[in-house]
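Protocol step 4 of 6: record predicted structures for both targets in the notebook before any analysis. Target 1:
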Amino acid sequence: MKNLGLKGWIVGLFLIAITLSGCGSSGEGSVKNDIESDSSGNSDGGGGSSGNSDGGEGSSNPAPTEPPTSSEDLGFKKVMIDGGGITEQQIDGNGHLVDVPVEDAGEATTVAVYSDSNGTTVHITYLSASDGALKHAWCASENDCSFLDSWQKEIIDQGSGPQGLGRDGNMAIDQNHQIHVSYRDYGIAQISIAANQSAIDQLQSDSNKILKYATNASGRWQSVIVDDTTDAVTYTQIKVDGNERIHISYKAKNQTFVDSVHGIQSDNALYYATCSQNCLRPASTGTKSPAWTRVRVDGGWEPGNNNYAEPNSTFITNDAIHISYYANETLKYATCPLTTPDSCKTVQEWSLGVVDDIGNVGRENSLAVNSDGVHITYRSLNPEGNVKYAFCATGKDCTQKGNWTTITVDSNPGTGKCTQIRIDGQNRLHVIYGDSRNGDLKYAFCVGGCIDPSQWSLYLIDAPGTIGGDGYLALESDGPDQTVHVSYRDGGNYALKYAFGPTPIPD
């Protein structure tokens, strides 16, 4: 055993921050080339009909039948890509024995699958806490991606000293197979040790929190600061549309309020940043790039409950931006029409509405759109947690709560961590989520009629352990042999894991 030095404290305390952070990136993700459409087979979320249009009139709580309660193991292939549970037992300044990870990876993971005439490549971005870096791993289709040797890894951006990079990361791939990533930096720890004492007197972890953007479009990774507001940014989401315009949604602190009971509090807001060209242009004055336009879409503050935009999920169709987000125990929805290259750059263009406000609902949300309408999965904390699904039909005003139908997909207590929804070209809904009570990674699948809870089938991807946090989902093909790809964090082993397999065929 060794005494826990400064580096050991930094790594160990950052591990605590990871454990408490929940979904490092908890929103909508990349399918195929991440060019999203409401009608194309290449879309993120897919086109076609999911068989949900019969719910268009909306209902707050229809429940014709009870949701399923059991889960069958899918038998997906799995591999540990980075990290791996190597720890040292060290003695901290108070004489306590603690486990400190030597290798720690897998927070804020996102997965995307790119297919073209040259084949298919699986891409994963993630935070490596032991390196203080945002990393990229990839595996080509000609290799068996269930073997570690099939994967290559590289660093996208890395911090120095007490600063790290890569928390709350999110990835999109454009039609030219170029990768775009939004993320933030973090202060690993600021430590002050009193003279002649071994105890830590003062600690502040995970500071700075500025928004960054990186891309490999030039053939090498380059990055720029999008929002330099100190200690402000979390929960980033990125998308690239068919015109190569980049869209980022994120949570940020804005104005400061003083409450007589709670003291100084921050206004937490949903922000949107966009850039159409020269998005790596450096700042001429200050630190943030002038190429980006930033908009405060929605925000607010209530004493003791300042949780706007925590988290959020973004989806781009041919004609609009769609964002789901959590706000003060409520699931909300924001949308903006994309009619010109300069659309959505002012707050007046955005429309907002409530999806579900019964109890504490809306965390861990994910959004997808197809020709049927808007689909959102999210977590209800009534009382411990379960998986819910909301649907608003095409042609309805989805900013009106009465046009949403909401059901429970998995009512087992503790479920709903880090939900992710995708829609394939065969009109089927795919959802992954964590079971925080059992530490499992689960999968829900619906062929059609998905506003009926009995139409959902539940499965198991990986268990047991501290698994299911920071899960991310991608679909490879729109054919009948759909392949499901999942990246996720194995918290018990401090590792990035990847699982894949065919779409299940319900009985």
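Target 2:
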Amino acid sequence: MSKQVAPETNPAKEPVKPTAHFAGMHEQIARALSIAEFGVPAQVQTRSQRGVLIETGRDRLTLSTFDFQTAVSVTVPVETPVAKGYSLLDFAELKKALSATVAGETKKVAARTPVALAGDLLATEHIALPITTLDIHEFTHPPEATPAVVTVDAQHFLVQLNCVLRAAGRDDTLPALTGIQMTLEGEKLTMTATDRYRCAVAEVLTTPTVKTPEAPMTTHIPADVLGRLAKSLKSYEGPMGIGIVEGGVARTTLSMGDTTITMRSLEDRLPDLTALFPTECELSVQIDRATAVRAAKKCQALIKAKGENGAPVAFAWDGDKISLAPRIGTADDQARTKGMAIPSVNTHGSADVMRGRTLAFNPAFLLDALGTFTSDTLTLHLGRTVGPKPVLLTEGAEMAGTGYRHLLVPVRLAE
């Protein structure tokens, strides 16, 4: 009788012992964790993916996080052993525990408090406690960062990014409209966003890291990701590198010193919107921006006070004079409503083209558009066509703009 052999089984992987060791200042570790948090999944994933991978060695500490859409790597100089060490710790617990270790201290003392990690043991001179260790075998490592092909001034990039973010769509059933499309061409980065009712285009000058890209490179990043990024990096000053991979796993990396943030691209791209931007107009009107904002806020508040949410606000012309009023109530109510005067100057054409016409907009969209400009004045470029043909807003008198243009579709009013 033959002897029965038990089938082989795959032995379970041995848990990896946390071996990361470092010593640094509380302020620098807390700042690095706040940036790394950008890659921690907000939704429920495998528990290990909600961890932070800590790598140490050669007096450097690197924190890595990855939520399958965004990968973050932050490196800071600290004291470490020469040998490399690795620990995967629960991110939320580590961040809270790090803050708790300096509870009761002044802000100045807390910032200068020495902090050390030995495997999973977080310690200061006063207190120490172990942090929950996660299974590194279940952690999906992030893709490699893409080398920068150009650099931009970070603050100018963030200013222009915040302008176009307002025009991005929020409707998940139209995913192509929920992103910011970035195109590198020559020595210029162009950012575009639209939700069908408005369209914003901003330009940023770039400096090639080696040589100017030979062909245009395009990426399309979710607007919500870039919106959170803009808030996290608002205080960063210096150059920002941009690297783009179009094929395979399409992704974009923004690099700032020893920090890299790599984001997956949306699959769909925006259609060519060039034709939407007019190159000639019948009338260009320069208006005082601050007064227009005040007028739009008053009109919006009156619409709410009257309980007519969804009603538009309308520009009206009386010769060369312009006013803005809420479009609410009956025809008789509208005739009796007085709009707020807005200082204006015609820079091209004659106001006769607007005689007997009004130009109505969604008040929230109008305020968003006005808020994307920082100049004292801006220019409305109007065509002769009656109907919801987009109106172009620029900072200067030229229709080409000065690095930023905003298209706004008027509201069609009932005859």
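Step 5 preliminary note on target 2. Residues 150-274 form a domain with the DNA Polymerase III; Chain A, domain 2 fold (CATH 3.10.150.10). The chain has three domains: 21-138, 150-274, 277-408.
Proceed to step 6 after PI sign-off.
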